[in-house]
Amino acid sequence: MPSQDGLVIKPLDTRSRAAWNDFVTTTPAATFCHRAEWADVLHGVFGFENHYLYAEQDGSIVGVLPLAMVRSRLFGNTLCSTPYCVYGGAVGVERAAIDALEREAARLATELPIDYLELRSTERTQPDWPSNDLYFTFRKALSADDDVNMKAIPRKQRAMVRKGIEAGLDFAFDDGLERFYHAFATSVRNLGTPVFPRRYFAALREVFGKDCSVATVTHDGGVVSSVLSFYFRDTILPYYAGGMPQARALKAFDFMYWKLMCSAVAAGYRVFDYGRSKAGSGNYSFKKNWGFEPTPLPYQYRLVRIDDLPQRNPNNPKLKLLIETWKRLPLPVANALGPLVSRSLG
């Protein structure tokens, strides 16, 4: 039934996909994480049950809310917007559309076998819902001039970039995933994190096509670091990155992100989105050292069958034990077990 303002909430289907993506592309508050193709990736790779909702008014989409259900013994079952994405939450041309979508999500959460609803919003829309201050995002406008962008990097970090340039590193875009997955799997094991299945990254490249790239840094022919990036409107998002143990000494990450930035500028992109990091983490400090200012991500929750927010902080004893155990696994074992565990992390 339409609301008093004529809003109707509907589920995404094949007929509405094009209109959904048109809305996402033209709505400033929408992000790459709102694209409809994520539903294909999440269901196809992980088997997640999707509940993508849109608000329609007078025959046009005026708001969207991508949702998928994640089952996890560690963090509880979640209806999330959006799993494996740094952004999410309802976006709309007016507040009424956002409110209507969030009300429907809250109602849906009571019908599904979940413990809580999680909206990875960029703005707080429900003051009465619990939120957290765990994550921050880092975005910065780019100049069309590489020299201007280099000078915008704080002096100490700029020196790290120059050391990477002087180390004889090579940067190239890859057609395949072999070099990326090797660097990424090694890196996340060393951090104590289960690796995603290779087919997840293959799906991202296939589904998003030219809007998804892989670039790899080598030294004397050997892989040192690699990054998978997304492109959306005028923005590049280096999203998944990994490196070998020698990457730090060679300043390979500094070099890699600088070369990626230069390539994006040459292609006409004007915003560099470093993505989210946990407050106080090494990645948080690294991004600040590049001159990026942190912006809080006020993820919002609707608790359904639990009384307290899930503790995803590494200080959580259960999570801390998992991290320390994972760091000690042989790489082949971690790569074999990782895909079985990572699907429940969301």
Features:
single chain; seven-stranded mixed sheet; 346 residues; alpha+beta
Concise summary:
By secondary structure, the chain is of the alpha+beta class.
Widest sheet: strand order?
A: 10-11-12-13-14-9-15
Main sheet, how many strands, which sense, barrel?
7 strands, mixed
Please tell me how large the radius of gyration is: 20 Å
End-to-end separation in angstroms reads: 33 Å
Structural class by secondary-structure content: alpha+beta
Q: What is the percentage of strand-forming residues?
A: 15-25%
Q: Average pLDDT, to the nearest integer?
A: 93
Helical content stands at 25-40%
Question: Helical segment tally?
Answer: 12
The counted number of beta strands is: 16
Low-confidence segments: none
The best one-word shape is: globular
SSE string: EHHEEEEEEHEEHHEHHEEEHHEHEEHH
Secondary structure elements and pairings:
Blueprint: E1 7-11, H1 17-26, H2 37-46, E2 49-50, E3 53-57, E4 60-65, E5 68-70, E6 78-81, E7 91-92, H3 95-111, E8 116-119, E9 135-141, H4 146-152, H5 155-166, E10 170-174, H6 178-191, H7 198-208, E11 212-219, E12 222-232, E13 235-243, H8 247-250, H9 252-266, E14 271-278, H10 282-289, E15 294-296, E16 300-303, H11 317-327, H12 331-342
Parallel strand pairs: 6-8, 13-14
Antiparallel strand pairs: 1-3, 2-5, 3-4, 4-7, 5-6, 8-16, 9-14, 9-15, 10-11, 11-12, 12-13
Q: Would you give an account of this structure?
A:
The chain has 346 residues and is of the alpha+beta class. It has helices at residues 17-26, 37-46, 95-111, 146-152, 155-166, 178-191, 198-208, 247-250, 252-266, 282-289, 317-327, 331-342; strands at residues 7-11, 49-50, 53-57, 60-65, 68-70, 78-81, 91-92, 116-119, 135-141, 170-174, 212-219, 222-232, 235-243, 271-278, 294-296, 300-303. The strands form three sheets. A seven-stranded mixed beta sheet has the order 10-11-12-13-14-9-15. Helix 5 (155-166) crosses helix 9.
